[in-house]
């Protein structure tokens, strides 16, 4: 990667929200990444599930600037919360240690099934109610 290439803070995410195996339309999803002390660099995105319960977030990227010149291990905290019928569900929590795309799942794209009746738990390196498809 070049000195001024983009840093991927959260790779693209696609998924489906279910409740008791049925699609959930209109659930709100909140995606957040914490990467530095500057709140302007910590974007929060919102989306809602469609009639089929599906949602998508594009990748969150930042310009590299001089960070590419300083050798360091990044620490990026990623979360996705689902809000539905007055309840918040921890869907995804992950600590990303690379600026490359799709490193959350060792090179695979992030495609999730989020079952609201499931108890949050660890699956690999991430935590929440969502499972990788």
TrEMBL record:
Source organism: Trinickia dabaoshanensis
Domain DUF6795: 13-118
Name of the protein described by the UniProt record: DUF6795 domain-containing protein
